[in-house]
């Protein structure tokens, strides 16, 4: 399995910097996600790994072999794009075989490998069909088969599921992960869709303006965002502004004065040691707020319910709390509270109050 190491990768397009000294190591066999707002440089970074772009500065290694200037077809990478880029007038088999014919493999080997890979993506027996005769989901499987038939060591995926409907997307998520793991591939997957990254990724990186802002497991990054952008990008959150009051006696915990009361929370970013009087912002996920008692936490807020949505598995509330609109999400609700002028008491654990730079 191939480990990909990217060192100080810098790229400019027409004088404008697009990647600023990216350092990243992706372990062999990992399915790694690049996530971030439009234009942050995800595709550009992926295309450097594929070999379509060469860096202005910096280096890329596959294991300990430098590939920065190796052309794409010599890199052992398979690539799958958002637009399937299939030839509509050709059959499934012809589309999939293309990469092997280009490499001038013997006919018998081509036939065997195409059959194998069609089995892998669950399209066995469909080799003779024309692309126009396939559903969107099947076409996407052909695109995946085409990327895999050359037996790459690295699979690069650029928003591969964004043209599919929600049900097919879910199905293909687990398919792609299964195939990456079964074939021992190292995968890099670009997406806007945080659920894709959270549900499929071993680790992910959040990018902004050509920089890597945070790298970690999905749970790390969701629970411990290093800044406001990451907190908001990874999921719904309540942001409450306040001022740092003091360091508490328990290491790493701080009290913050907010219009909704004093809240105790923690920081995650090791480079951020807040000082007394400093303006900060707190991030609290809706599912971390609760109407129930939370053990070992001094955090109490009060708010009036202004909106209630019962969704069966969850109930989602909107509340007004001292000028802040808060969202609260309860799982498996046994009781549903309706909007009212009465103040409700809310609680949150200190570990779920993340203190961020303002
Ligand atoms: P999206 O999520 O919208 O696909 P992205 O994060 O993948 O965005 P990139 O496609 O990598 O972003 O683009 C990063 C920046 O580089 C953008 O400002 C884009 O306009 C610019 N850019 C990308 N490719 C080129 C190119 N070939 N020539 C000039 N500028 C480019």
Structure in words:
The protein is an alpha+beta fold. It folds into two domains: 225 residues, Rossmann fold (3-Layer(aba) Sandwich), CATH 3.40.50; 122 residues, no CATH class. Helices cover 23% and strands 35% of the residues. It contains eight helices and 19 strands. The strands form four sheets. A six-stranded mixed beta sheet has the order 6-7-8-3-9-10, sandwiched between helices. A five-stranded antiparallel beta sheet has the order 13-12-11-14-19, with no helix packed on it. A four-stranded antiparallel beta sheet has the order 2-1-4-5, with helices on one face. Strand 9 and strand 10 form a beta hairpin. The protein starts with a strand and ends with a strand. The model has no long low-confidence stretch (mean pLDDT 91). The site of adenosine-5'-triphosphate has 12 residues, from helix 1.
Q: What's the CATH superfamily of the largest domain, by name?
A: P-loop containing nucleotide triphosphate hydrolases
Order of helices and strands: EEEHEEEHHHEHEHEEHHEEEEEEEEE
Might you state the CATH topology name of the largest domain?
A: Rossmann fold
Supply the CATH class of the largest domain: Alpha Beta
In CATH, the architecture of the largest domain is: 3-Layer(aba) Sandwich
Q: How far apart lie the N and C ends?
A: 42 Å
Helix coverage percent: 10-25%
Number of helices: 8
The coarse silhouette is globular
- How many structural domains are formed by the residues? 2
User: How many individual β-strands?
Assistant: 19
Catalogue the unreliable spans: none
Rg for CA atoms: 24 Å
Main sheet specs: 6 strands, mixed
